Here is the input.
Amino acid sequence: MSARRYWLMKCEPEAYTIQALERDGTSAWEGVRNYQARNFLKEMSAGDRALFYASNADPSGVTGVAEVCRAAYPDPSAWSKGHTYYDPKSKPDRPSWYMVDVRFVEKFPQIVSLDTLKATPGLRKMMVVQPGRRPSVQPVTPEEFEMVLKLGRSGGR
Here is the structure.
């Protein structure tokens, strides 16, 4: 069994929230249409943990934790004409896009804002705080994950 890895997964609140994941229990993480983020999805294994990040929110930031409960598999929405995520170049025998399933782990009492992440020593190398380096799925180190977890559990500070 491989070692657990850690990730940050971004979603706009209009699409899905940590509250919705808490309600649903599990969800498919579909619709990733960035090659770098797709490649990170393909590296995920069941048991990996992810910081759930609300992007384009007020404020944007980490709202909780999810766990990958199904490793990467082809995203069938890419083959459905008329679907938002349809991609005519993706084929069932040669999929271009992948998804994972995630399960709810915890919701933080308050958001850990992007400003807090940027201001926290030890988190300044996180991809999410780097200008121009913000794919919707990105790796974080175990140390970064633990630091954000502590911030989240203490109310975002």
In short: The first strand starts at residue 6 and ends at 11.
